[in-house]
Amino acid sequence: MLEVVTIGVYGFTADTFLDKLTGAGVGLLLDLRQRRGVRGPDYSWANSIRLQSALLTTEISYRHVKGLAPTTELRQLQYREDDRKGVGKRNRIALAPEYTERYTHEILDPFDLAALVAELPRNSVTALLCVEREAEACHRSLVAERMRIEHGLSVTGL
């Protein structure tokens, strides 16, 4: 059975992030971010070029899957809901229902997930990456759940 894990950037250092991936047997990291950067010095290691360089030292492959990234409009919708609830992106625990509905309809439904799943490594775990600490607060949880339901993949959050 193919295994998928989900992981966010927040809450990790570069070293603890890489340790978590290698400890889980990750061989491929799928970056689901639209913008592959994170603001602030604490997370500069997660900016795409630095992250890819660090992954090379662990023999974990990297792939940007921009087709599964939320649009700017969708991200803004979620930010407005966060503001309304008085929570920040770094401490969000759930996605707005409208965001979930629109992401599913506009991004996930038209995406050829079967083709992506067919390309996943059979001899290692695949990680779905975004920034949020909690998978339920991030679109990666929607992708992971679709992979579990429609393709029978084992899914775990790191």
From TrEMBL:
InterPro entries: DUF488. This is DUF488 family protein. It comes from Antrihabitans spumae. The lineage of its organism: Bacteria, Bacillati, Actinomycetota, Actinomycetes, Mycobacteriales.
